[in-house]
Amino acid sequence: RVAQPPGRVHDGCVTGARLVRFCSVVVFAGTASCSHSAHSTARPSTTRATRPAITWTSWVNTYCEGASVAVGAINGRGVLFEDVPVDVHDAPSAQRVKQKAVDVLRGIVAATDKAARSVRSAGVPTAPNIANGPAMVADYVSAATADASFFAGLQADAERLPTDDAAAFLRGLASLRADAKQWADIGNDYFGRAQKLDTTHKLDAILRADSDCYWLGK
């Protein structure tokens, strides 16, 4: 290679008596270049794809879809929640009524559990910005989770109802009915807190605009 005069710039590097083989290293877009390097290797980009923002409309749609199925299952509860006479006089008749109660609860548990899982996995919406958004989402998730746990407990109680004694069965059923009627109070604390946090009433407006949240009223 032909020597360069002292102090002359060659291929982006300064040569000379005092600066022999000292190169300027330019870092740009993750690469380093120097003419005296055997190879110039670009570093792989570490930039990650940005996830699209979760919209409140999308979140409400997920929440209301699951909640409407759960509310529908609860509203179809029948003999379990209503103070209607049941024909229980022996073990077979007690078993029939028990099975009906268990089946009703099994359907409610499936619906409320699915609703809870879907709203938990829906994430926290950020678009548009709504004051206290994450806290409100947490309350709605907690309410759905509490409902699912409540009905799972009722199902376990129903499965333990005795059928070999008609009188004992009727007492157990009456107790189960009394407990079941408390379901409406389970999520009230969470819903009430979420409503207080919705100071701009933006979330409330989106919820009531979703057809699956018909049970909220207009």
Describe the structure.
This protein has about 220 residues and is mainly alpha-helical. The chain is built from 7 helices and 5 strands, in the order βββββααααααα. It has helices at about 55-75, 90-120, 135-160, 165-180, 185, 190-195, 200-210, and strands spanning about 10, 15, 20-25, 25-30, 30-35. The strands form 2 sheets. Strands 1-2-3 form a 3-stranded antiparallel β-sheet, with no helix packed on it. A two-stranded antiparallel sheet has the order 4-5. Strand 4 (about 25-30) and strand 5 (about 30-35) form a beta hairpin. Helix 2 packs antiparallel against helix 3 (about 135-160), helix 3 packs antiparallel against helix 4 (about 165-180) and helix 3 (about 135-160) packs antiparallel against helix 6 (about 190-195). The protein is elongated. It starts with 8 loop residues before the first strand and ends in a 9-residue tail after the last helix. The model is unreliable at about 1-40 (pLDDT under 50).
The CA-CA distance between the termini, in Å, is 85 Å
Please work out how many helical segments DSSP would assign.
7
Residue share in helix: 40-55%
Task: Provide the β-strand percentage band.
Answer: 5-15%
Uncertain regions spanning at least 5 consecutive residues = 1-40
pLDDT averaged residue by residue: 78
Strand order, largest beta sheet: 1-2-3
Task: Write the SSE topology.
Elements: E1 9-10, E2 13-14, E3 22-23, E4 26-28, E5 31-33, H1 56-75, H2 91-120, H3 133-159, H4 166-180, H5 183-186, H6 188-197, H7 202-209
Antiparallel strand pairs: 1-2, 2-3, 4-5
